[in-house]
What we know:
Belongs to the anti-sigma-factor antagonist family. It holds the Pfam family STAS. InterPro entries: Anti-sigma_ant, STAS_dom, STAS_dom_sf. The protein is an alpha/beta fold. The protein has 3 helices and 5 strands, in the order ββαβαβαβ. It has helices spanning about 30-35, 60-75, 85-95, and strands at about 5-10, 15-25, 45-55, 75-80, 100-105.
Amino acid sequence: MEPLTIVSSRTPAGPLLEVAGDLDHSNAHQLRTAAVGAVVSAGLMLVMDLGELGFCDSSGITALIAVRNHVVAAGAGLILVAVPETLRRLLHLTGLDQIFELRDSHRLPSY
C-alpha cells in the first residue's frame, strides 16, 4: 500500500490538488479535507490531478463525490485530470463519468 499524498498549488483557473498513492477507507477523509482547504471560490475550477493515484476503493469514490458536491455548492467546478485507466473505467461503469469532467492534462481553456 502506497501512502496518500496531496500537494496543493494554484493555477490560473483555481486550486490544483495533485493526488498520489492509494486512496481508500483509511485516508479518504484527507482528500475531503484538502478540497475544503483549497478554498474554491465561485467561478473558479478545482483541478485534481490523479495521474499518480495507484488505487481507489469505494471510500475513495465517495470522497471524490463529496469533493464534487462541496465544489458545486461553492459555485465552482471540478476537473479530474490524468485519471488512471482503472479509475476511468470504474467511473464509466458506475455512470459517474457523467458528473465528473475528465481531462487528459492540466491545459485548461480560459474561463
